[in-house]
Amino acid sequence: MTIRRVLLALPLLLMAWIAIMAGVMRFSDAAPAAVVILPAAGFTTRLPPGTAIIGAGPFHLTLRSDTPGLARHLYAAGARLVLPAGLTGCLPLPATAAKPGA
After folding, report:
1. pTM recorded for the entire structure
2. Distance of alpha carbon 33 from its chain centroid, rounded?
3. Could you give the CA distance from residue 7 to residue 79 in angstroms, rounded to a whole number?
């Protein structure tokens, strides 16, 4: 019975996490970059001006822009799902990683 509950809860937990991350990206400019999941064909031709592709994979693009409202612009360009990228998270960086050149 416990394994069944865990197996039912895991997809719900994953969907909730994705929804929260999409909401953070949509309603704040806290993330320095964005990940577009499953970009449509020709999506890169419709990117807003000043947007750079900093990474790509078979199912995602990682984009960076200094323009406010990046997620809004990406959704307008045809993105299906935009998630934040480059956030440090809740834990502080170790002292050696925080110092440039260390």
Report:
1. 0.74
2. 7
3. 30
Nearest to 39 by CA among 20, 15, 57, 19: 57
Please state the three-class secondary structure of the chain as a single string: CHHHHHHHHHHHHHHHHHHHHHHHHHHCCCCCEEEEECCCCCHHHHCCCCCEEEEECCCEEEEECCCCCHHHHHHHCCCCEEEEECCCCCCCCCHHHHCCCC
Name the phi and psi angles at 53, rounded to 5: -85, 115
pLDDT digits (tens, 9 = 90+) for 22-59: 998 888 888 889 999 999 888 999 998 999 999 999 99
